[in-house]
Specification:
Blueprint: H1 12-20, H2 29-55, H3 60-106, H4 108-121, H5 126-137, H6 140-151, H7 161-178, H8 182-186, H9 190-216, H10 220-245
Length: 247
């Protein structure tokens, strides 16, 4: 079934128009999503940890040791989470694909009626969609693809997606997590390093938030301010709690 009708025939004039028109849609959504998840947590969690340890009067060396340990553990945890999420998505698609294949074979008339119903929802009249339904019934693989996309709303996942997601999120987390720790590597006194860490990390959160808003279609300035505010609240809370527990 998978090998049937793999080629698509397009009229020469339409093919010429398609070749002339270059789509400019953003297509790296999965990668951007991974980077957003990784960098967002990577900037915020170690930032809050470093602020909390500074509030507890820890030395810069302790902050660095604890911070690097947290970045390593966080990268593994976040990467594993991304892997399991992508793997679950792929498993779900495989289960639904198998079920849809069985239904096309066992109840083809019902599945054909579902195709007609889907097309009717787009305003296509019965005399217009009847040839489409008949054409799909002659092409099982195309019929299956149609049902997966338009009935179930599922796109075939990249088989490499799980590992790619794990890698992307883990690397993004490490890159984000090292930012608030950098001042502690060069400034021995933790409280002085914390001030530099706050300035650098807030700047990084603003830049990251702006980029996130730009690539996701939201207002970049609003996204930048929201992202920086979340990071500032997290670090302030950690610092305050540490001061209360360890004056």
């Amino acid at each position: 079934m998978a090998g049937e009708n793999s080629s698509v025939t397009v009229e020469p004039e339409k093919e010429r128009l398609l070749n002339q028109h270059k789509e400019k849609h953003f297509t790296a959504g999965d990668i951007v999503r991974d980077i957003i998840i990784g960098v967002s947590d990577g900037l915020t969690v170690p930032f809050a940890l470093a602020a909390g340890l500074s509030g507890a009067n820890a030395s810069s060396s302790i902050v660095i040791t604890a911070g690097i340990a947290e970045v390593a553990a966080g990268a593994i945890s976040m990467g594993l989470g991304g892997y399991l999420a992508a793997k679950s998505e792929a498993d779900h698609y495989a289960r639904e694909l198998k079920r849809e294949q069985e239904e096309i074979i066992s109840v083809p008339d019902t599945e054909a009626a579902e195709v007609a119903e889907i097309l009717a929802e787009y305003g296509v009249e019965p005399h217009e969609y009847a040839p489409v339904v008949n054409a799909l019934r002659k092409r099982p693989q195309a019929w299956l693809d149609f049902m997966m996309k338009f009935e179930l709303g599922l796109e075939k996942p990249d088989p490499r997606r799980a590992l790619q997601s794990a890698f992307n999120i883990a690397i993004a987390y490490i890159m984000g997590g090292l930012v608030p720790l950098l001042p502690y590597m060069f400034i021995p006194r933790a409280k002085d390093a914390m001030v530099a860490s706050v300035v650098i990390t807030i700047a990084a959160l603003l830049i990251f938030g702006y980029a996130k808003g730009y690539f996701t279609g939201n207002k970049p300035v609003k996204s930048a301010l929201q992202t920086a505010l979340i990071g500032a609240i997290a670090s302030a809370a950690a610092f305050g709690i540490a001061k209360v527990v360890h004056p």
